[in-house]
Write a structure and sequence with these properties.
The chain is mainly β. The protein has 1 helix and 14 strands; from the N terminus they run αββββββββββββββ. This is Twin-arginine translocation signal domain-containing protein.
Length: about 200
């Protein structure tokens, strides 16, 4: 079993536990009225940092999980959520709407509890230095843009791959982002953008 396969299995096990404890992190998302979602960011055995954009101006942090430097900046149409993670750290935020972009550095897990808003759209994953990623969505994903390499794959509602030098992998996503795992090599980041 490769390290990458082992990490994915560990994430799925962690996600299943979070589903039980956190109220449906990987539950299916049907049509529903907008409601609060939970955004959870965790280190994956090391340190990391994150910047996540959501299309909600009222995003807020769960204060008991945040340290100085973890913050929410709201603009006229979105909020920017950012912070640092040390080993074992877990930061939580609430918002309505969807995750529209995530920039992850280091080894970081991101899990969102979708509220049923399924807008779909193009998903671009950018990075380099042989950084790796794994993304799970609420519905199917597919290769519509012909820019994947042999180290990239898509199956049903998940995609994963390795990002070479200044690489972008693109998928069409039906629905919203449930979870992202990124392992960015030193000096690189993994950027996930959902054009909804």
């Amino acid at each position: 079993m490769t390290r990458e396969t082992s990490n994915r299995r560990a994430f799925l096990k962690k996600a299943a536990l979070t589903t039980t404890v956190g109220g449906g992190v990987l539950a299916s998302a049907g049509t529903a009225a907008a409601a609060d979602q939970k955004l959870i960011l965790e280190s994956n055995g090391g340190s990391g940092s994150y910047t996540v954009y959501v299309n909600d101006t009222g995003a807020s942090g769960v204060s008991s999980t945040l340290e100085s430097g973890d913050e929410v900046d709201s603009g006229s149409s979105k909020s920017r959520i950012s912070g640092d993670l040390s080993d074992g750290d877990r930061d939580e935020y609430t918002f309505t709407g969807q995750v529209t972009a995530a920039i992850l550095r280091g080894d970081v897990w991101q899990v969102a509890n979708p509220n049923g808003i399924n807008l779909g759209g193009r998903l671009d994953i950018e990075g380099g230095g042989d950084s790796t990623y794994w993304v799970k969505a609420s519905q199917d994903m597919r290769d519509d843009y012909s820019n994947l390499e042999s180290t990239d794959s898509v199956s049903d509602d998940t995609c994963d791959g390795t990002l070479g030098f200044s690489d972008t992998d693109s998928y069409y996503l039906d629905g919203t982002i449930y979870a992202i795992s990124a392992s960015a090599t030193d000096g690189y980041s993994v950027t996930v953008s959902h054009d909804i």
